[in-house]
Write a structure and sequence with these properties.
mainly beta, seven-stranded mixed sheet, four-stranded antiparallel sheet, about 0% helix, about 60% strand
């Protein structure tokens, strides 16, 4: 079984920074795209940022220039560096990964983390 475990959420004042991490573990053959999504109360889950296996990135317009996604393929880990945080960034942040594992080989399955709360106070 594959698991995604997130860490790094918390409470921060507006203008502050947080770094989220998400580590994948299990019978993993390869990991394709990895990404971060968020869901604020009463709103739909939205894409924040995604990074492909070769390092190409894409960001939501609302976070461009403030957030940076990166990955360490040796550690099967994706990161989200969040700077200049705003109260509207408050949400539960979920990591997501397309993983080829022993159950899905040769195809991939999409896995989600359990979510980590980010709260930005004004």
């Amino acid at each position: 079984q594959v698991q995604l475990v997130e860490s790094g959420g918390g409470l921060v004042q507006a203008g502050g920074s947080l770094r989220l991490s998400c580590a994948a573990s299990g019978s993993i053959f390869s990991i394709n795209a990895m990404g971060w999504y968020r869901q604020a109360p009463g709103k739909q889950r939205e894409l924040v940022a995604v990074i492909t296996s070769n390092g190409s990135t894409k960001y939501a317009d609302s976070v461009k220039g403030r957030f940076t996604i990166s990955r360490d393929n040796a550690k099967n880990t994706v990161y989200l560096q969040m700077n200049s945080l705003k109260p509207e960034d408050t949400a539960v942040y979920y990591c997501n990964a397309d993983i080829t594992d022993s159950a899905s080989f040769p195809k991939f399955s999409t896995y989600w983390g359990q979510g980590t709360q980010v709260t930005v106070s004004s």
